[in-house]
Design goal:
The protein has 132 residues and is an alpha+beta fold. It has two helices and nine strands, in the order ααβββββββββ. A hairpin with a 5-residue loop joins β6 and β7.
């Protein structure tokens, strides 16, 4: 089991940019078509911008047309955790980093095969580690 990263809010504020803090710690959402990775096509691994946990292989990224980076599956079952999100008068599935519990985005059931899932992520929560 992955050991959880625990930091105070002051530590997170010191380490993350204001935009990253808003998304990752306050469960914000960046505007569509504005994030660094929505139109990125380079091979590599997307890791959590807060703790470096590997989250998604770039090979699972697809163009969802939504303006946010979208993936059809995480690297493994422990890298991304999900929980019910009933905010904004909706019922959605929130995606969280399995290691530091940072808000990444949401999961929807309108993705491509083989999973049928769309992990709709915020670029602010991610960092692309290019394939060597």
């Amino acid at each position: 089991m992955t050991e959880k990263v625990k930091k105070t809010e002051a530590e997170w504020r010191a380490e993350l940019s204001p935009a990253q803090y808003h998304v990752m710690r306050e469960k914000g959402t960046e505007p569509a078509f504005t994030g660094q990775y929505w139109d990125e096509h380079a091979p590599g691994t997307y890791v959590c911008a807060g703790c470096g946990q590997p989250l998604f292989d770039a090979a699972t990224k697809f163009d969802s047309g939504t303006g946010w980076p979208s993936f059809f599956k995480p690297i493994d079952d422990k890298s991304v955790e999900t929980k019910s999100d009933r905010s904004h008068f909706m019922v959605r599935t929130e995606a969280l980093c399995g290691k530091c519990e940072a808000h990444l985005g949401h999961v929807f059931e309108d993705g491509p095969e083989p999973t049928g899932l769309r992990f709709c992520m915020n670029s602010a929560s991610l960092k692309l580690m290019p394939k060597k």
